[in-house]
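Newbie here. two chains, one complex. Structure please?
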Amino acid sequence: GAVVSQHPSWVICKSGTSVKIECRSLDFQATTMFWYRQFPKQSLMLMATSNEGSKATYEQGVEKDKFLINHASLTLSTLTVTSAHPEDSSFYICSASHSAASGRLYQETQYFGPGTRLLVL
Amino acid sequence: AQSVSQHNHHVILSEAASLELGCNYSYGGTVNLFWYVQYPGQHLQLLLKYFSGDPLVKGIKGFEAEFIKSKFSFNLRKPSVQWSDTAEYFCAVIDPNDYKLSFGAGTTVTVRA
Protein backbone atom coordinates (compact mmCIF):
# COMPACT_ATOMS: atom_id res chain seq x y z
CA GLY A 1 0.00 0.00 0.00
CA ALA A 2 0.91 3.66 -0.11
CA VAL A 3 3.05 4.66 2.83
CA VAL A 4 3.65 8.16 4.08
CA SER A 5 6.17 8.96 6.77
CA GLN A 6 6.67 12.01 8.92
CA HIS A 7 9.68 13.12 10.88
CA PRO A 8 9.96 13.85 13.70
CA SER A 9 7.07 12.09 15.40
CA TRP A 10 7.18 14.55 18.26
CA VAL A 11 9.12 17.67 19.12
CA ILE A 12 9.37 19.98 22.10
CA CYS A 13 10.81 23.42 21.53
CA LYS A 14 11.17 26.78 23.20
CA SER A 15 8.97 29.68 22.24
CA GLY A 16 10.49 31.72 19.40
CA THR A 17 12.33 28.87 17.74
CA SER A 18 11.53 27.33 14.38
CA VAL A 19 10.61 23.71 13.81
CA LYS A 20 10.78 21.78 10.55
CA ILE A 21 8.58 18.76 9.89
CA GLU A 22 9.23 16.44 6.96
CA CYS A 23 6.64 14.45 5.05
CA ARG A 24 7.69 11.73 2.63
CA SER A 25 5.79 9.40 0.35
CA LEU A 26 7.85 6.23 0.51
CA ASP A 27 6.58 4.05 -2.30
CA PHE A 28 4.82 6.39 -4.69
CA GLN A 29 5.18 9.80 -6.25
CA ALA A 30 2.70 12.23 -4.81
CA THR A 31 1.21 14.76 -7.15
CA THR A 32 0.01 16.78 -4.21
CA MET A 33 0.74 16.91 -0.50
CA PHE A 34 -1.50 18.37 2.15
CA TRP A 35 -0.84 19.66 5.64
CA TYR A 36 -3.47 19.38 8.35
CA ARG A 37 -3.73 20.31 11.97
CA GLN A 38 -5.71 18.26 14.44
CA PHE A 39 -6.82 19.53 17.82
CA PRO A 40 -7.67 17.10 20.61
CA LYS A 41 -10.96 15.32 20.06
CA GLN A 42 -11.54 17.23 16.84
CA SER A 43 -11.38 16.56 13.16
CA LEU A 44 -8.58 17.49 10.82
CA MET A 45 -8.32 21.06 9.64
CA LEU A 46 -6.66 21.62 6.27
CA MET A 47 -3.89 24.17 6.49
CA ALA A 48 -2.42 24.14 3.00
CA THR A 49 -2.14 22.28 -0.26
CA SER A 50 1.26 21.79 -1.80
CA ASN A 51 2.19 20.84 -5.36
CA GLU A 52 5.73 19.95 -6.29
CA GLY A 53 7.65 22.89 -7.68
CA SER A 54 5.00 25.51 -7.00
CA LYS A 55 3.88 27.69 -4.13
CA ALA A 56 1.59 26.21 -1.57
CA THR A 57 -2.03 27.27 -1.39
CA TYR A 58 -3.04 28.21 2.13
CA GLU A 59 -6.48 28.00 3.65
CA GLN A 60 -8.17 31.09 4.94
CA GLY A 61 -6.84 32.08 8.33
CA VAL A 62 -3.55 30.21 8.01
CA GLU A 63 -0.51 32.51 8.07
CA LYS A 64 1.74 31.61 5.17
CA ASP A 65 4.70 33.44 6.69
CA LYS A 66 4.37 31.45 9.87
CA PHE A 67 3.83 28.05 8.31
CA LEU A 68 6.35 27.79 5.50
CA ILE A 69 5.86 24.92 3.11
CA ASN A 70 8.46 23.66 0.69
CA HIS A 71 7.70 20.90 -1.77
CA ALA A 72 11.06 20.10 -3.28
CA SER A 73 10.25 16.82 -4.96
CA LEU A 74 7.42 14.42 -5.69
CA THR A 75 8.22 12.52 -2.52
CA LEU A 76 9.08 15.24 -0.02
CA SER A 77 7.29 18.20 1.49
CA THR A 78 8.37 20.16 4.56
CA LEU A 79 6.43 22.35 6.94
CA THR A 80 8.40 24.87 8.98
CA VAL A 81 6.68 26.49 11.92
CA THR A 82 8.57 29.75 12.28
CA SER A 83 8.91 31.55 15.59
CA ALA A 84 6.72 29.00 17.30
CA HIS A 85 4.53 30.02 20.21
CA PRO A 86 2.59 27.90 22.70
CA GLU A 87 -0.62 28.35 20.71
CA ASP A 88 1.08 26.55 17.82
CA SER A 89 1.24 23.41 19.92
CA SER A 90 -0.78 20.83 18.08
CA PHE A 91 -0.74 17.61 16.11
CA TYR A 92 0.37 18.23 12.53
CA ILE A 93 -0.48 15.65 9.92
CA CYS A 94 0.52 15.46 6.30
CA SER A 95 -1.03 13.47 3.53
CA ALA A 96 0.12 12.60 0.04
CA SER A 97 -2.18 12.23 -2.87
CA HIS A 98 -1.92 9.75 -5.67
CA SER A 99 -4.19 10.67 -8.50
CA ALA A 100 -5.55 8.80 -11.47
CA ALA A 101 -7.51 10.51 -14.19
CA SER A 102 -11.07 9.32 -14.57
CA GLY A 103 -13.09 11.29 -17.02
CA ARG A 104 -13.40 14.84 -15.82
CA LEU A 105 -12.93 13.99 -12.19
CA TYR A 106 -9.56 13.05 -10.85
CA GLN A 107 -9.78 10.23 -8.40
CA GLU A 108 -7.62 11.20 -5.52
CA THR A 109 -6.89 9.10 -2.51
CA GLN A 110 -4.98 10.76 0.27
CA TYR A 111 -2.67 8.66 2.36
CA PHE A 112 -1.80 10.04 5.74
CA GLY A 113 1.40 10.21 7.69
CA PRO A 114 1.56 9.28 11.37
CA GLY A 115 1.59 12.90 12.47
CA THR A 116 3.98 15.10 14.41
CA ARG A 117 3.09 16.27 17.88
CA LEU A 118 4.52 19.71 18.56
CA LEU A 119 4.75 21.19 22.03
CA VAL A 120 5.99 24.73 22.34
CA LEU A 121 7.03 25.76 25.83
CA ALA B 1 -15.68 23.20 0.39
CA GLN B 2 -17.96 20.33 1.22
CA SER B 3 -20.05 20.07 4.35
CA VAL B 4 -19.84 16.63 5.91
CA SER B 5 -21.91 15.62 8.89
CA GLN B 6 -21.54 12.56 11.04
CA HIS B 7 -24.57 11.92 13.14
CA ASN B 8 -23.05 10.19 16.11
CA HIS B 9 -20.38 11.73 18.27
CA HIS B 10 -19.75 8.69 20.44
CA VAL B 11 -21.02 5.16 20.03
CA ILE B 12 -20.57 2.51 22.70
CA LEU B 13 -21.41 -1.09 21.97
CA SER B 14 -20.50 -4.64 22.94
CA GLU B 15 -18.47 -7.11 20.97
CA ALA B 16 -20.43 -8.92 18.26
CA ALA B 17 -22.95 -6.10 18.01
CA SER B 18 -23.60 -4.53 14.64
CA LEU B 19 -22.32 -1.06 13.87
CA GLU B 20 -23.66 1.61 11.58
CA LEU B 21 -22.24 5.11 11.41
CA GLY B 22 -24.06 7.79 9.49
CA CYS B 23 -22.47 10.27 7.11
CA ASN B 24 -24.12 12.89 4.94
CA TYR B 25 -22.53 15.37 2.59
CA SER B 26 -23.75 18.51 0.91
CA TYR B 27 -22.63 18.42 -2.73
CA GLY B 28 -25.20 17.24 -5.25
CA GLY B 29 -22.86 16.25 -8.06
CA THR B 30 -20.30 13.53 -8.53
CA VAL B 31 -18.23 13.01 -5.42
CA ASN B 32 -15.46 10.84 -4.10
CA LEU B 33 -16.25 9.46 -0.67
CA PHE B 34 -14.01 7.97 1.98
CA TRP B 35 -14.04 6.48 5.43
CA TYR B 36 -10.87 6.73 7.46
CA VAL B 37 -10.14 5.15 10.84
CA GLN B 38 -7.77 6.38 13.51
CA TYR B 39 -6.89 3.80 16.13
CA PRO B 40 -5.68 5.09 19.52
CA GLY B 41 -2.20 6.52 19.10
CA GLN B 42 -2.03 5.70 15.41
CA HIS B 43 -2.38 7.60 12.18
CA LEU B 44 -5.35 7.82 9.86
CA GLN B 45 -5.86 4.74 7.75
CA LEU B 46 -8.09 4.36 4.75
CA LEU B 47 -10.95 1.93 5.44
CA LEU B 48 -12.70 2.19 2.11
CA LYS B 49 -13.55 4.56 -0.70
CA TYR B 50 -16.18 5.10 -3.33
CA PHE B 51 -15.50 6.70 -6.69
CA SER B 52 -18.07 5.14 -9.00
CA GLY B 53 -19.78 1.86 -9.84
CA ASP B 54 -21.32 -0.48 -7.28
CA PRO B 55 -22.69 1.73 -4.50
CA LEU B 56 -21.97 -0.96 -1.93
CA VAL B 57 -18.27 -0.75 -1.18
CA LYS B 58 -16.33 -3.30 0.79
CA GLY B 59 -13.29 -2.23 2.72
CA ILE B 60 -10.74 -3.68 5.04
CA LYS B 61 -11.44 -5.43 8.34
CA GLY B 62 -14.98 -6.41 7.42
CA PHE B 63 -16.29 -2.88 6.94
CA GLU B 64 -18.58 -1.84 4.15
CA ALA B 65 -20.33 1.36 3.17
CA GLU B 66 -23.31 2.14 1.00
CA PHE B 67 -23.52 5.20 -1.20
CA ILE B 68 -27.09 6.42 -1.58
CA LYS B 69 -27.06 9.34 -3.95
CA SER B 70 -30.67 10.37 -3.36
CA LYS B 71 -29.96 10.71 0.36
CA PHE B 72 -26.48 12.25 0.00
CA SER B 73 -25.34 9.54 2.37
CA PHE B 74 -22.39 7.19 2.75
CA ASN B 75 -23.03 5.14 5.87
CA LEU B 76 -20.44 2.78 7.27
CA ARG B 77 -21.42 -0.66 8.55
CA LYS B 78 -19.91 -3.69 10.17
CA PRO B 79 -22.13 -6.66 11.08
CA SER B 80 -20.14 -7.81 14.10
CA VAL B 81 -17.61 -5.57 15.84
CA GLN B 82 -14.60 -6.60 17.82
CA TRP B 83 -12.84 -4.92 20.70
CA SER B 84 -10.06 -3.96 18.28
CA ASP B 85 -12.51 -1.79 16.33
CA THR B 86 -12.36 0.79 19.11
CA ALA B 87 -11.23 3.90 17.26
CA GLU B 88 -12.19 7.25 15.81
CA TYR B 89 -13.96 7.05 12.46
CA PHE B 90 -13.98 9.90 9.96
CA CYS B 91 -16.11 10.29 6.89
CA ALA B 92 -14.55 12.44 4.19
CA VAL B 93 -15.57 13.83 0.83
CA ILE B 94 -13.53 15.28 -1.99
CA ASP B 95 -14.93 18.43 -3.50
CA PRO B 96 -14.63 18.03 -7.28
CA ASN B 97 -14.21 21.78 -7.68
CA ASP B 98 -10.99 22.06 -5.71
CA TYR B 99 -10.08 18.45 -4.87
CA LYS B 100 -9.90 19.29 -1.20
CA LEU B 101 -10.78 16.62 1.32
CA SER B 102 -13.42 17.69 3.82
CA PHE B 103 -13.78 15.68 6.99
CA GLY B 104 -16.73 15.07 9.22
CA ALA B 105 -16.30 15.73 12.93
CA GLY B 106 -15.59 12.07 13.59
CA THR B 107 -17.32 9.39 15.59
CA THR B 108 -15.64 7.74 18.54
CA VAL B 109 -16.51 4.06 18.67
CA THR B 110 -15.90 2.20 21.91
CA VAL B 111 -16.35 -1.56 21.84
CA ARG B 112 -16.65 -3.23 25.22
CA ALA B 113 -15.32 -6.74 25.56
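Moderator note: The longest strand of chain B covers residues 87-94. Chain B has a mean pLDDT of 92. Thread marked as resolved.
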